[in-house]
TrEMBL record:
Known catalytic reactions: 5-carboxyamino-1-(5-phospho-D-ribosyl)imidazole + H(+) = 5-amino-1-(5-phospho-D-ribosyl)imidazole-4-carboxylate
Function: Catalyzes the conversion of N5-carboxyaminoimidazole ribonucleotide (N5-CAIR) to 4-carboxy-5-aminoimidazole ribonucleotide (CAIR).
Keywords, sorted A to Z: Isomerase, Lyase, Purine biosynthesis
This protein's pathway: Purine metabolism; IMP biosynthesis via de novo pathway; 5-amino-1-(5-phospho-D-ribosyl)imidazole-4-carboxylate from 5-amino-1-(5-phospho-D-ribosyl)imidazole (N5-CAIR route): step 2/2
EC number: 5.4.99.18
Protein name (database record): N5-carboxyaminoimidazole ribonucleotide mutase
PurE domain: residues covered: 3-154
Coiled coil: none
One GO molecular-function entry: 5-(carboxyamino)imidazole ribonucleotide mutase activity
InterPro entries noted in UniProt: PurE_ClassI, PurE_dom, PurE_prokaryotes
Keyword Lyase: yes
Record-stated family: Belongs to the AIR carboxylase family. Class I subfamily.
Organism: Paracoccus amoyensis
HAMAP family the record matches: PurE_classI
């Protein structure tokens, strides 16, 4: 299976969040690679990853980081491959620090920023799927079916739990 998606994260500690993106890609049969890359701790790794991303066939990069979350923006500065940013929830500031760090990019180098935490990571997987589905009719069908199944699972009325 080729791997059109790169899931990168600033630390091993981000994986419980970022595995939600991977789970969606698994469900939809989309290949991906995973890597720990940090703008702060492994800047050379970030540089290499960004420099080779397009040539290696990556079509979308999902980048998660927490706190001073510079990774998604720095990756966007290094490659034209679209970057979807996931703000990882932090203890001290609940992830608002991550959100603002990822969201407020200067004109010219956008990051498509998701919501804070695991739901944002899952949505990043779905956003990547939507981008890839533009040029992949089979995937488009699988994504439509996934969305229909989710809609069908939503009850019309609340029940006492
Ligand atoms: N925000 C970044 C970057 C970066 O943006 O390059 N590198 C690591 N980190 C973040 O530091 C947090 C704590 O990391 P540790 O748990 O390893 O101390 C993680 O959420 C990670 O994404």
């Amino acid at each position: 299976m080729d791997k059109p998606v790169g899931i990168i994260m600033g630390s091993q500690s981000d994986w419980p969040t970022m595995r939600e993106a991977a789970a969606i890609l698994d469900e939809l049969g989309i290949g991906y690679e995973t890597k720990i890359v940090s703008a702060h701790r492994t800047p050379d790794r970030l540089w290499d990853y960004g420099k080779t991303a397009a040539a290696r066939g990556l079509k979308v990069i999902i980048a998660g980081a927490g706190g001073a979350a510079h990774l998604p923006g720095m990756m966007a500065s290094k490659t034209r491959v679209p970057v979807i940013g996931v703000p990882v929830q932090t203890r001290a500031l609940s992830g608002v620090d991550s959100l603002y760090s990822i969201l407020q990019m200067p004109k010219g180098f956008p990051v498509a920023t998701m919501a804070i935490g695991p739901a944002g990571a899952a949505n990043a997987g779905l956003m990547a799927a939507g981008i890839l589905a533009i040029s992949d009719p089979d995937l488009a069908e699988r994504l439509d079916a996934w969305r229909d199944a989710l809609s069908a699972s939503i009850p019309e009325e609340p029940v006492d739990e």
